[in-house]
Amino acid sequence: MAFTLNVNGASHVINEEEDIPLLYVLRDTLRLNGAKYGCGVGQCGACTVLRDGSPVRSCVVPAVSLQGREVTTLEGLRAPDGALHALQRAFLAEQAGQCAYCIPGMILSAAGLLRRKPSPTEADIRTALDANLCRCGSHNRIVRAVQRAAAELAE
Amino acid sequence: MSAPVSRRSVLKGSLVLAFALAGPDVAWAAPAKKNGLPQDLARTPGLDAWIRIGEDGVVTLMTGKVELGQGILTALGQLCAEELDVEPARLRVLSGDTRVCPPEGPTAGSMSIPNGGAAVRQASAEVRALLVDMAAKRLRVPAKRLTVRDGTLQDSGGGARITYWELVGGKRLQREATGTVAPKPASQRKQVGRPLPRVDLPAKVTGETRFVQDLRSDRLVHGRVVRAPTPGASLVAVDSARVAAMPGVLKVVRDGDFLGVIATREWGAVKAAAALAAAARWKDGAPLPGDPHAWLLAQPTQDTVIHSVERPTDVAPTRTLEATYRRPYQMHASIGPSCAVAEWDGTTMTVHTHSQSVFETAEALAKMLGLPKEQVHCRHQDGSGCYGHNGADDVAADAALLARALPGRAVRVQWSREDEHTNEPYGPAMVTRVRAGVDANGDVLDWDYALWSTAHGTRPGGEPGNLLAGRSLAKPFAQPEPKNGGPPNYAADRNAIPLYAFPGQAVTTHFVKAMPVRVSSLRGLGAYANVFSIESFVDELAHAANADPAAFRLRQLRDDRAKAVIVRATERFGWAGFQRRPHHGRGLAFARYKNLAAYCAVCLEVFVSPDTHVPRVVRAVIAADAGEVVNPDGLANQLEGGLIQSLSWSLKEAVRFDARRILSRDWEGYPILTFSEAPSVDVQLIDRPEEPFLGAGEASQGPTAAALANAVFDATGLRVRDLPLTSERLKALRG
Question: Which CDD domains match (chain A) (predicted)?
């Protein structure tokens, strides 16, 4: 079936099966790398993207349900001139990541948090990221990166 | 329980003394030099195999070591830039390409800096010396007068200058390393020893193509493999006609028990694989053991005394203590399931893989496919962190088999979460038993340690029988008989030999060849269970002696660098002045990884809820001595990551299974540590720029587990000897 998706500010006519999860449209149809496949059942957060600014698990959300919504992936965080988002800069400044496979999902979950709560406490950040799994043990660096981005955005 | 320990009793019977094993294989464990060259450079002495200078001024470094998230390419680049006197930005690093890069074996065992790094440093120093020599001749000035800055050589006397690329750009040096060039002394290093940011991270935070999962050629199609639903099951029948007719399905492939499907689109492949799984009938294999630890102890074993020291004195111990420790099967549990992209053009099988062992896996793939090994080309591409031998090599075999069935297309195989959880080779379950006879002061006279384990190494190693797919073909490759690889203290018995100066010592490995559950190398191998056991037991001995656990350790150690990390960790932690609070406790543990790599001490503070018994780690301190540090931030990241991962293993993780199947099939069935459960970590590095590199990537796994158990004991008086250390176990002990 054909439907329209708005991804990172651009409108796309998608011709895919009705049951296709958003993740497969983002990766396979639109060839975007940001959302990662991690579990396919909404448990790990590697596929997190924003729906109208709020984090969702793209591996379990049917793409067709996103009609009329604004979808933002890691690629969509950069400014039109290519400048990195404050969160991306902060993750680099803190060297927050080892394998970094989970990082796009972390950044988008954090973006959702900062939109909802621009000055989160450390506990807020940890709670917001609890459903995003990291296996390398980069947790503390990731928390520091979110704190750094929050501080920069508050200026 | 106070009978004196008879050390001789363990030496009786059919045990083999292992000293004979400590011969040629030792080079594998300890960084060695051959002909004055680091071993990886001795194996590939041609300098052109390591470094090329392009006409465009780009310097290419080639390495057989691969990026696993540990930051190795950044560190190797620093070593190269340092010795060549070029800016790191001038470097391009090619890694893990079996046709381009020097074969350096697997990227594993905390050996990449001690072996690979030492080779890059020496090769770079030799190339620089050759270039300086050439420039001196070309400029007709004494070599001594030349200084090099970012590849530009300048005569400090006259001002004449020439660049590396003007000298040799695009040409081969055609020279071999000699071992006669000395790398820079510590005092002159500018790149090495500083926290250069990771070279691969920018692409990963912006979503550029860096992961194998993200490769998309125009010929890309999507494959999925349907795996046996229970370990060891065989495929009885499959009716694939309906699947073959599904929209977008290009091919169903069956070869014995190997069953896969290829489709044009990824979602189509997912649905086709589900339909194929539903259409397949399997016959279960042998049942799985109910209690893996009882099973281990009941198996026939290959017994080896790996270490024995006769106590010179004959005083009878005043007391004997004994304890048994257990470690469950645990997963690598990568966040991104394994993935590979393979393409067969009729001549070459090209496989993009995140394998840790591209060279040996290429050889195994060639044998599986019946091809000469020159016709299999493996190219490393980053994957999700693996922490050892996970599904990376298996999915490469899956992709290669499907690609062979569909020539001219790049077949991408992505394992599902359930594929990874139920098929990756787990870190083996282990049982250890320690007995110590102590004197009136509580100091150890006799130390008797025994361990039971299956294999810790079933990596491909050039053998298709080590690949899941290789074993399932209609003409299957047999799995090679598992071995307890390497010299003593190396695999199952890694870190089984204590570093303490106990007067009498015996260490025995009981190796079990059977593997009812698939197992292989998980970060630290046997060191995780052995250090957990030794360091828990030393804590038990300290308490039995009414001694402070830190002081007790220090008085049994003779190695000053070992003592230094314990002193640094306890000082930073505030061990001496620890303020006791209800339900809080402190714990310390120490090990020198493999007894020859990095020294690492860990202090933890825990809080154990009196209501729920849930242990929570409040804060952690690591002190480590890895010899010369190439990139302190990278090292700190590895040590802290290892600590947090080990806390996850030690607090939460055990693979669950019943007699038929693996029950840990997703993250609900195998929970790992979350942000709210991860403690703050203070990493202290003792840098010794004049000392050799000591590998550190796995150094914190073992000490962390024991520090946790010791801290929980301090908080509760309960000694947990079975991992993971859960609230259920504490509740049961409390009674």
Answer: fer2 (cd00207)
- DSSP symbol at B113: I
Amino acid present at B590: F
- Is the peptide bond preceding residue B195 cis, with omega within 30 degrees of 0? no
Q: Using CA atoms in the order B11, B14, B19, B21, what is the torsion angle rounded to 10 degrees?
A: -150
Give me the pLDDT at residue B430, please: 98
CATH number where A40 lies: 3.10.20.30
Which stretches of B70-117 are DSSP H helices?
A: 72-84
Average pLDDT over residues B84-100: 98
Closest chain A C-alpha to B403 CA, distance in angstroms: 19
Q: CB atoms < 10 A from the CB of B1, how many?
A: 7
> What are the chain A neighbours of B633 within 8 Å (beta carbons)?
95
Q: Residue B75: list chain A partners with CB under 8 A.
A: none
What is the pLDDT, as a whole number, of residue B10? 36
Are the Cβ atoms of B207 and A33 closer than 8 angstroms?
Answer: yes
Indicate the SS3 state at residue B316: coil
Say which CATH number the domain at A117 has: 1.10.150.120
The string of pLDDT tens digits covering residues B7-52 is 333 333 333 333 333 333 333 445 667 778 999 999 999 999 999 9
Residues of chain A scoring pLDDT < 70: none
Q: How much is the pLDDT for A74?
A: 98
A contact test, residue of B206, B332, B638, B672 with most A CBs within 10 A: B206
Co-location of A60 and A114 in the same domain: no
Segments forming the whole domain that contains residue A18: 2-75
The structural domain count of chain B equals 3
In a domain, B577, yes or no: yes
- Number of domains observed in the structure of chain A: 2
Tell me whether B39 touches chain A (CB under 8 Å): no
Chain centroid to CA B117: 17
Q: Which own/partner pairs from B53-57 qualify as long-range (CB within 8 Å, at least 24 positions apart)?
A: B53/B131, B53/B151, B53/B164, B53/B165, B53/B167, B53/B168, B53/B169, B53/B170, B53/B171, B54/B165, B54/B169, B54/B170, B55/B165, B55/B169, B55/B170, B56/B165, B56/B169, B57/B90, B57/B151, B57/B163, B57/B164, B57/B165, B57/B169
Is residue A80 one of the residues assigned to a domain? no
Q: Within 13 Å, how many C-alpha atoms sit on residue B249's CB side?
A: 21
Q: Which range marks the domain in which residue B681 is found?
A: 491-497+513-734
- Identify whether the C-beta of residue B561 lies closer than 8 Å to the C-beta of residue B583: no
Q: If you write DSSP's letter for every residue of A75-138 in order, what string do you get?
A: GGGS-TT-PPPHHHHHHHHTT--SS-SSHHHHHHHHHHHHHH-SS--HHHHHHHHTTS--SSS-
B272 plus B358 within the same structural domain: yes
Percent of chain B past pLDDT 90, that is, above it, reads: 94
| B185 and B216 fall within a common domain | no
pLDDT value of residue A73: 98
Average pLDDT of chain B, as a whole number: 95
Q: In this structure, is residue B82 part of a structural domain?
A: yes
Q: Is residue B290 part of a domain?
A: no
